[in-house]
Structure formats: structure tokens, C-alpha cells
Prior knowledge:
This protein has 14 helices and 13 strands. The protein has 453 residues and is α+β, with helices and mostly antiparallel strands. It has a domain at 3-210: Amidase signature (AS) enzymes (Alpha-Beta Complex), CATH 3.90.1300. α7 (254-269) links the parallel β9 and β10. The longest helix is centred in the last third of the chain and has 22 residues, at 351-372. The chain is globular. Glutamine binds at residues 108-111, 134, 154-158, 186, 293, 405. One of its GO terms (molecular function) is ATP binding.
Amino acid sequence: FSSQELTRHYLDRIQRLDNQFNSFISVTEERAMADAAAADQRIQSGNAAPLTGIPIAHKDIFCTQGIRTSAGSRMLDNFIAPYESTVTANLAAAGTVLLGKTNMDEFAMGSSNENSYYGAVKNPWDTAAIAGGSSGGSAAAVAARLTPAATGTDTGGSIRQPASHCGITGIKPTYGRVSRWGMIAYASSLDQAGPMARTSEDAALLLQAMAGLDPKDSTSVDQPVEDYSARLNDSLDGLRIGIPREFFADGLDSGVEQCIRDAIAELEKLGARVTEISLPNSQLSVPAYYVIAPAEASSNLSRFDGVRYGYRCDNPTDLEDLYTRSRGEGFGAEVKRRILVGSYALSAGYYDAYYIQAQKIRRLIKNDFVSAFGQVDVIVGPTAPTPAFNLGEKSDDPVAMYLSDIYTLSTNLAGLPGMSIPAGQSAGRPVGLQLIGNYFSEARLLNIAHRFQ
Ligand code: GLN
């Protein structure tokens, strides 16, 4: 079948089914059909690459030229991006077909996708459950087969945790592996984009197209991109797996734990050798992250002032009123909370006590990983402590919400790659197995995931 037929199939599914999940903010039907027609021509002329004509959806945090890019916020509800992000440009150049832009927590702040101006995303496995966040729209859309794949971003777990809750595969690459140009900034020292897909094989193809040095992002890394598909079938014989004791402590759901233990036994059957390790400072990742990320966010979000672009309040009386009401009306509650926390942590008199202290903890967390990777090749554990919780269950309790990120945050603080793959169910809801690798070991993670799947 042609790309046009394939694209029509997914557009029809979105139209028929997405009212149940709310996974898309914008559906770009015309653009999709035009992309598909161009792809079909390339296929006919014998110039097809592996992703030519494959439909994809992008998290609405990536600027897409001429298309609304909202970041899940009222602030950017009217924002038509005037330029294209490197990630979406690379995927378009690889031949993908853009179906639309997916729902997300506002400015990627959240773990449940309940912080979106466009409403919560519902989990396709059980619509009473959250899809996870902040890339919940991408995860739900892939799980519901509304798109074969999607992009996500992960600042503290936002690719891995929704992938886990929706029973799909997602990888957050090493910090710097993928360009952040044109990706609306949340916490710049932690943000990283990656693919969300059904299988590791698909994720490998997508990451291949996304990754690489970009002169427009000074933190992107000048290191050749490996051929991720070539090593998918490598043997796991002798692979040294580390199981961090701290990831199996209080708060871990017993059904999740059972799935993870079964997965580890399966990896042993494939030839892996398992050792228990310790990441002694990992318990400090929640407080350190929830100082550093809001601090960076408070600075990044200062650009939304009602003057240049985005939401502007009606009839401002003076400049102060313009700023105050544009930001007051344009941002949601969680975003405001983080701007306040972040500004406080960065303010004179508190900077040393909070921000500097958090940066020191960040270094300790990184050092834990450096010493662990002296002993093992990969670290394995749960992605999230529980399966998807119910919509509304934690929305009044930010601290309970933040604790659901306990296993994912340390990876971002250290800049390491992390992946979540399906590993069974607890109470009828999907469970994700997390793989954490050393810097630039994406090929190895994809290989382990592929052998496991
Ligand atoms: N849940 C975390 C937060 O709210 C992580 C979000 C993310 O990775 N973008 O900050």
C-alpha cells in the first residue's frame, strides 16, 4: 500500500477514536496528505529511505514552521512557529509524514498530562487512568495506534514514564545527542528529545534520523551517530547488569516489582550476569531536581511577557499591567508554582542554600553513576514506582506527584541515556522496565531492548 493509504488510515483512526483519549492538540491533515504524496513519488522513483512515507506525530513542544506550536499552554495557543526545530526538520528530511501535534503537560511540567491547557490525556488501556506526562499525548497516540511513532522530550522522565504507563517503548538519549534547537525550553541543562514507538527497532530508526551535531545548539555533541539498527541483534552474553538496591525500596508497587524481577530473570536467560549495586544519593534526586528544573524554568519562561509573541491580555493599562495580566492569565497553576519556586531558589540570600546545594547534589548523583558504570554495563529497574494512577488522584498534591518521578530524574541530572520498554502488567495496567546506560550507549540500550522484546 502507498504512504497516502497508510496516512489516510491513521488520520481516520485519529478522527474516529481520539475523542476518547485527547492525545492530539492539532491534526495537520492537509500537510500529512501532501507529505504522503511526496513520499509516494520518492518511493516510485526508487529513492526511498527506511522512514520514507511513515506517518509520525510530534509533541507540541517542537516548533513546526507555519503550524501552531502551543507547548500545552494558553500562553502559546495562538503561536504559529516561524521556524522549524532541528528534530522535526531531520525527521521530515528522513521522509516522515506529519500527522499532527500531540498533547502534553504545559511547558512539559508534569507527570500525568493533567496540566495541559487542552485537557488531560486518557490512557488507552483504561481511560480512568492517566497516560503519564509530560509526553502523554505522544504515548497515548502510539498505544492507541493513532500513529506508528511520535517524538517526545524528557527533562525528568517525560519520555520514559508515559511510555511505561502506556505500554510502549521510549528512549531518552544522552544529553547533547539530539539538538534542542526549536524545542521550547523547560530546563535547558536537562531537556533532551527522543523517539516513542512500538518497538526498539522502530525507535532505532527514528533516533538515527534525530541525532547528531547541530551548529545551532552549542550543547549538541560532535560525536558520530552510531548505526543503531546494525547492532540490534548483538548477543547479550556476558552483559553485566546492575540492579540498584535503592530502586526496590519503599513505595514500589508489588505488582511492578514482580514484573521487573521477571524481566531480570529473562535477561539472565539471554546471557546477562546480574549484580546488586548501590546509587546511594538517588533518594536526593527529587529535591535536587525540583530546585534545579524550576530555577531554569523561571529564567526560560521570562521571555513570555505578552509583548513579543504569545498570549496578551485585553486592554492593558500600562506596561506593568500588561506583564502581570498576560502572565497571570496565560500560565496555568503548576507553571506559576514552578516560576515562584525557581525565582525563590535563585534569589540573593537563598541562592547558596538552595540552588548551589542542589548543584552539589547533582554532582554526587552523577558520581554514583560513574562508579556504578565501573562495575556494570547497564543499570536495570522500574521506570515508575506504580502503574498509571487514576486521573485526579494526585492532582491536588504536588509532592505526591513529584515522587512518581523518583526513578527517572537521576538519569537527567547525570545526563545519561535511559529507556523504558514494556514488561508486563500490574492490576491490568502496563509496567515499564527501565534501562540506564553509560554516556552514548544508546546502541547498547536499543540492542538489549530488542533482544528482550
Ligand atoms: N515530571 C517531571 C516534571 O514535572 C518531568 C517532566 C519532564 O521530563 N518534562 O518536571
